[in-house]
Amino acid sequence: MIFLDLALKNLKRHWIRSLLATTGIIIGVLAIAALGIMGNSINLLVANVISDVGDTVIITPHVAAGTGDFFGDPRRAVQSTISQSELDRIARVSGQNRVIPVQQSAEEISFGDESGYATIIGLAADDSNYLLDVREGQYLRQNSPGCLVGHYLAREWALSPGSRVMIGNESVRVSGILEERGFAIDINPDYALVVDEGWFASHFSRSDEYDQVIIKVENINDIDTVKQAIDHQMNRRDTVVDITDSRDLLTQYQQIYDQITVFLIGIGAISLVVAAVSILNVMIISVTERIREIGILRSFGATRRQVLVMFLYESMILGVVGSAVGGVLSVLGGILISGVAIEVLTTGTSFGENATIFDFNAILYVSFAILFGIVVSTVSGFYPAWKASNMTPIEALRHE
Question: What are the extents of the domains in the chain?
Answer without folding.
Answer: 2-51+250-397, 56-216
